[in-house]
Amino acid sequence: MNFSFVELSEEQRRQYVDAERLFLALEAAEEDAWKYRGSLFWREQAGNRYLIHLLPDSRQRSLGRESEALRAKFEHFTQRKPKAEQRVKELRETADTMKRLNRALRVGRTPDIVIDVIHALRKARVVQHFLLVGTNALYAYESAAGVRFPHEVMATRDADFLFDTRRRAEFVQVMEQRGTSFLELLRKADKTFERHPTDNHTAVNSKGYEVDIIRRFPPPELEATEHPLRMTEDEGDLWAMRATTGQQLLSVPKFKQVVIGTSGAMASMITVHPLAFARIKRSLSKQRQRSALKAPKDKLQADMVEELVRQYLPHLAEQPSHNDDQHGADDH
What we know:
- Helix 3 (112-123) crosses helix 7 and helix 10 (274-286) packs antiparallel against helix 11 (295-312).
- By secondary structure, the protein is of the alpha+beta class.
- The chain has 11 helices and 13 strands.
- The two termini are 28 Å apart.
- Helix content is 45%, strand content 18%.
- The longest helix is centred in the N-terminal third of the chain and has 38 residues, at 68-105.
- The protein folds into 2 domains: 1-106; 108-325, Beta Polymerase, domain 2.
């Protein structure tokens, strides 16, 4: 079967490569600067000096009584912190320029709301607990290939985020420290997000765009602790809905790619291996209970992603292992 992909122009490709390289450098710099957040100072107590770490949220943590190692740590921190912050500042300024060029050259077309949600999760230090699945994954695949899928295979008005409940305790701890709910995090991306009046796993904004939170079916021994599951203790927060493919999605190879929004903004999208995406979509298209409206689109997406890999991403053509072969996301 032959498919026609719209290839980016040479100018657009060069701009994407430059923007991707810059954004990855910015991400690395921000991760480095995170190590030097807050400040360090010495505190006298009972005739001894203790090194104290003052965090941005005003929490204080003692690192121990003065020692040669702690003096070296203090010296390194005070010297490295301004350099790390300056590098982030400079890269962000360059990223602003790249954003304008991305927009001018129409390099990206990922929905800006998806970019903004990823940024909100990353800024809150919880992005590692989620996997973006479903149709939005196609933006990662086409970005990697330097092409555009036809519009009819991309149409969707929601984004499915798979929550990894295996690391729930770590997630909850971060959320408690920040004193926020997951819904409030989404409002960092768009202040109009509200919990859906009938689907408590869904947030919807004023333009009708939805963010759905899904999770695995827990193993029997964890059924009591994982069902039901609200994202935080906030009574108005979202609940993660169990998805039949959740456990399979968590076990497959992941695929990370810089994507660019229509505004030119950039983000790193983490989704699933494209061939795994294709197989689950094909499987969905054959299920008897699958909606007659969705099944043809499932098959088309599967066909096109497989052809994309064959033509443009041959290095990804090696099949994932059998255990990794069972995964996917059912778009709502």
